[in-house]
Amino acid sequence: MKYVFGPVPSRRFGRSLGVNVVPLKVCNWNCIYCQLGRTTTFINEERDFFEEKEIKKEIEEAVKIFDYDYLTFIGDGEPTLYSKLGELVKWSKKIQDKRVAVFTNGGRLYLDKVREDLSPADVIKVSTDAGDERTFRIVDRPRREITFTKFLEGLQKFRKEFSGEIWAEVMLIKGINDKDEELEKIGEALSTFNPNKVHIMAPTRPPAEKWASPPSAESLIKAGKILSKYVREVNIIDYVERGKFYVDPKNPLESLLLTLKIQPMTEEEIREVCAEYNIDLKEVMKVAKEVEFNGIKYFVY
Ligand code: SF4
After folding, report:
1. What are the extents of the domains in the chain?
2. Needs which cofactor (predicted)?
3. Which CATH class is domain 4-243?
4. What is the pLDDT of residues 95-147, one digit of tens each?
């Protein structure tokens, strides 16, 4: 299949059947953490990238074959730049009965058509990595016309009109948007559109800019505490966002400790990895530090 992939396991979306509607790497942002690399087609106008009927044909086939929880529209860039996204979302709701999600940066929600295109979906995942114009320009590097105010107003309008769930993702970069004052501003921005859930993330794959490194596990926990003051549900997302953790089998202990440096894990999760990769649990617990978030005990390194 050319457009449909998976289903892939996801902590947030269960088994997610993905549909990629934008070619590499067409985006209206150029995030420093983007795992697809730097944006090569930097546009903010929608385009007719692919044949809509070809995508529909694949979706029709895939929904019959696979067992999945979400049909998820994404792109090797920003999916709202595909001119037929609205039609696909509306049609997907009619031809199958699972929830439909769209992963967008949210940068085009100030446009009436984009809000209308996304309205039939069940869940819209947006990005909120900054709480002001300065940090927005440093982390997300959007097209000039997308100001932070315009971006936030788009999210606020969408919240008022949209009956589904909005999940906000906050990607934290060490030394840039993980400081207390930045987090307070991000919290304030989130509170203006009241997302149903907030997911705190850290870059886990090679980012567009080498210097965009993940914050420490302690910073992630601290971010969780700060953002919890502003929004109802805050989650820290696991290292590779899979149903289970993977470590390098050649150096399992080292690899697990590296994971614990950027991703807090529960004791049970550590136990599972140790059992699977034959790691001495005592060795890990000897060096791991306990931290608490939302009443749950995590371990970091
Ligand atoms: S919005 Fe998404 S696709 Fe676009 S640059 Fe940022 S992370 Fe990459």
Report:
1. 4-243, 245-301
2. [4Fe-4S] cluster
3. alpha beta
4. 999 999 999 999 999 999 999 999 999 999 999 999 999 999 999 999 999 99
Distance 255 CA to ligand 1 centre (A): 27
DSSP string, 146-158: --HHHHHHHHHHH
* Distance from residue 127's CA to the centre of ligand 1 (Å): 9
Mean pLDDT of 262-266: 70
Helix ranges restricted to H, the chain: 52-65, 85-95, 112-118, 133-139, 148-161, 180-193, 217-228, 252-262, 267-277, 281-287
Residue 301 identity = Y
Candidate from 12-26, 206-220, 251-265, 278-292 with smallest mean pLDDT: 251-265
Integer Cα distance of 173 and 190 in angstroms? 18
Is 77 touching ligand 1 by the criterion CB < 6 Å? yes
Atom of ligand 1 nearest to the CA of 77: 3
